[in-house]
């Protein structure tokens, strides 16, 4: 065969091939009866079914416009990579009763290679529900639905998307491996109760990058069973800060290992970076390799805090110490302003004191004067600037 023709054929075939792999099969929500101002619950569920059966990668597109959607639970395993691109605003039902008992508004489970992307907003329309929420006082209160749950999802990414005014937690990540949030946004009022930003439990290799989180509770919180979570270039505030725990309540908890928080700014938050465990509880799973670096605190109430006597609303007895061992913790280059005189609180367990806690360049001020440090059952290794530890008043 003619050499030129040969090359032309190869080029043409690879052009076709590249075209078909780079492009995914696009499923517009309108093809499934979804239209602006309408309820797209059924349309979305049907589109997901089609996309998930596809043997080539498929993309569901929800374009600009405002939509309504009730609780949806979609799941894999799917046959190929699947993407949901949302550029519109999707609103949840106002009344929690209209979730038909679901604990989550939008739930994705048992999927691998999934992408949720777009400039769109998932609006939990939480305001009226928050006002009725009395869960801090009433044990039998109705639990409100979270905006998102990702359960057992691997190799996946949430890009850009905004989570707004969730009725409860914004995002719960459970049992996931290699899961990334990039350019994600969370917006809720500071007075919205229990609206944690992203809670991660029982997961490995989770990254939260370039994300802004403003909420009424923890910005990022870790439950038990964690391996390698990275939080980088994140702005947090308002909210309760970045939190490991609370841990220790249950006997079957798994270890928390590898948490890296880097280049973050916390503004007007109730805590900065915090590790908390309950006293007098059965949990023993250790917490190790927690590293906080290059963090700016702006008017933060407890910028650096390890609290192994965590016991809000006097729910527990402090008679016996926490059984959780905390080790290899570093606070490096942490600067800014504290909203209270004590910038550093390290209250470790008298039963299992903290091991290898490093303060390296901690420069916090309260009303222009250096903030102080209160420490118990820990001997921090100090390099560079850091406040001197004082034992708490007996
Ligand atoms: C996710 O990864 C875990 C651990 O490798 C595996 O057991 C599980 O089956 C995977 N789940 C999916 C949906 O691929
Ligand atoms: C992790 O997930 C990303 C996003 O889907 C994917 O591109 C990457 O290949 C995954 N890494 C591994 C080791 O599977
Ligand atoms: C730190 O984070 C901010 C955003 O919060 C970003 O603009 C900046 O580029 C980051 N710096 C580095 C060195 O990654």
UniProtKB/TrEMBL annotation:
Belongs to the glycosyl hydrolase 28 family. The active site is at residue 240. InterPro entries: Glyco_hydro_28 (IPR000743), Pectin_lyas_fold (IPR012334), Pectin_lyase_fold/virulence (IPR011050). Keywords: Cell wall, Cell wall biogenesis/degradation, Glycosidase, Hydrolase, Secreted, Signal. This is Polygalacturonase. It comes from Lotus japonicus. Residues 1-22 form the signal peptide. The keyword Cell wall biogenesis/degradation applies. It comes from the Eukaryota. Gene3D superfamilies: Single-stranded right-handed beta-helix, Pectin lyase-like. GO terms for biological process: carbohydrate metabolic process; cell wall organization. It is found in: Secreted, Cell wall. Transmembrane segments: none annotated. One of its GO terms (molecular function) is polygalacturonase activity.
């Amino acid at each position: 065969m003619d050499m030129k023709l040969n090359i032309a054929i190869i080029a043409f075939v690879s052009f076709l091939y590249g075209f078909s792999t780079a492009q995914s099969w696009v499923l517009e929500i309108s093809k499934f009866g979804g239209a602006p101002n309408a309820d797209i619950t059924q349309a979305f569920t049907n589109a997901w079914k089609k996309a998930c059966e596809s043997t080539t990668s498929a993309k569901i597109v929800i374009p600009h416009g405002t939509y309504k959607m009730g609780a949806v639970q979609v799941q894999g395993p799917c046959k190929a990579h699947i993407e949901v691109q949302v550029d519109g605003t999707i609103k949840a039902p106002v009344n929690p009763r209209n979730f038909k008992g679901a604990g989550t508004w939008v739930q994705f489970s048992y999927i691998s290679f999934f992408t949720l992307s777009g400039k769109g907003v998932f609006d939990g329309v939480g305001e009226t529900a928050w006002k009725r929420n009395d869960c801090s006082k009433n044990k039998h209160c109705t639990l409100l639905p979270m905006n998102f749950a990702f359960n057992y999802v691997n190799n996946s990414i949430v890009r850009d998307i905004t989570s707004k005014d969730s009725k409860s937690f914004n995002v719960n990540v459970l049992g996931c491996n290699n899961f990334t949030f990039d350019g994600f946004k969370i917006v809720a009022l500071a007075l919205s109760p229990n609206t944690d930003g992203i809670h991660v439990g029982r997961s490995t290799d989770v990254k939260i990058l370039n994300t802004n989180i403003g909420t009424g509770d923890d910005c990022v919180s870790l439950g038990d069973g964690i391996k390698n979570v990275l939080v980088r270039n994140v702005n947090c505030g308002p909210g309760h800060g970045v939190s490991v725990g609370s841990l220790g309540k249950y006997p079957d908890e798994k270890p928390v290992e590898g948490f890296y928080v880097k280049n973050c700014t916390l503004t007007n938050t109730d805590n900065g970076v915090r590790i908390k465990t309950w006293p007098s509880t059965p949990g023993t799973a250790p917490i190790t390799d927690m590293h906080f670096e290059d963090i700016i605190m702006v008017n933060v109430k407890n910028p650096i805090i390890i609290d192994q006597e965590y016991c809000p609303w006097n729910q527990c007895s402090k008679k016996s110490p926490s059984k959780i061992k905390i080790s290899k913790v570093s606070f490096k280059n942490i600067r800014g302003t504290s909203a209270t005189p004590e910038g550093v609180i390290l209250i470790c367990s008298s039963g299992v004191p903290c091991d290898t806690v490093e303060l390296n360049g901690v420069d916090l001020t309260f009303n222009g004067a250096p903030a102080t440090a209160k420490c118990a059952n820990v001997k921090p290794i100090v390099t560079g600037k850091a406040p001197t530890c004082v034992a708490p008043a007996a």
